[in-house]
Specification:
Blueprint lengths: L16 E3 L5 E4 L8 H7 L8 E3 L7 H11 L1 H10 L10 E9 L13 E8 L13 E2 L21 E5 L6 E2 L5 E11 L2 H29 L11
Antiparallel strand pairs: 1-2, 2-7, 3-4, 4-9, 5-7, 5-9, 6-8
């Protein structure tokens, strides 16, 4: 495996899609080398509960730590930002969270919170069921999971999406329960937002570890068009 796992030049692939309307987003394929897959699979944290949790280097092996550093670093941030109309994105603080699995409560339609400027998601799943369940959709409405702006994105190894948060940056996926590995980086408006979200994330992780079964039970009957504003 080479010293660099993720290169900004990968975003120049001819099949990278960049949209500006109704909000800025990009979809980039094949962003990770095949040679890195075994190490990234081995080094991914073994979270006990479903959902996104704050990145902690001690939870991860060396290849995941290197990948997080590259994905959240200024060079890759600015490469994403240039395509989303924010060429100096790398100057903003970053919040990194990781998800190993989800339950059916997750993925409801939302926009992301106002404290986020841009969100990027890098998927690490070696395979995916022949189903739309759990596949990310960018949407034109907050109450219709089928109002897709383009093809849904299967969360397969090396797929990367990023979008600029706005009041209509609707996205979500159909209910899914099971393993769904992803690294999320959010560039935030300021360090106060980073500190606030980091504290909240650690509390949420503790509660999910304690009440994970209840969380699954509450999400079991989720409507396919369920939504929340942020």
């Amino acid at each position: 495996m080479s010293s660099q796992i993720l290169a900004p030049s990968g975003l120049d692939r001819p099949d990278t899609e960049v949209r500006q309307q109704p909000f800025h987003y990009l979809v980039a394929h094949g962003q990770l080398p095949e040679a890195a897959r075994p190490a990234l699979d081995r080094d991914f944290p073994a979270y006990r509960s479903a959902g996104f949790f704050p990145y902690a280097a001690e939870d991860c092996g060396p290849s995941i730590r290197a990948l997080v550093e590259e994905l959240s670093g200024p060079a890759f941030a600015n490469a994403i930002g240039q395509r989303l109309g924010l060429p100096e994105l790398g100057t903003f603080p970053t919040l990194v969270t990781l998800c190993k699995s989800m339950n059916r409560r997750h993925g409801t339609i939302h926009t992301d919170s106002r404290s986020k400027i841009v969100t990027a998601l890098l998927y690490l799943n070696p395979q995916w069921p022949d189903s739309s369940d759990g596949c990310l959709r960018f949407l034109s409405a907050i109450d219709d999971i089928d109002a897709m702006l383009g093809p849904e994105i299967k969360p397969l190894y090396g797929e990367l999406v990023a979008f600029r948060r706005s009041d209509n940056s609707f996205h979500g996926h159909l209910p899914y329960e099971g393993e769904r590995r992803v690294i999320q980086v959010a560039w935030l408006v300021d360090r106060a937002a980073l500190e606030r979200k980091s504290r909240r994330g650690h509390v949420t992780q503790m509660l999910k570890n304690l009440f994970g079964r209840l969380d699954r039970r509450l999400g079991a009957g989720r409507s396919r068009n369920a939504s929340h504003r942020d």
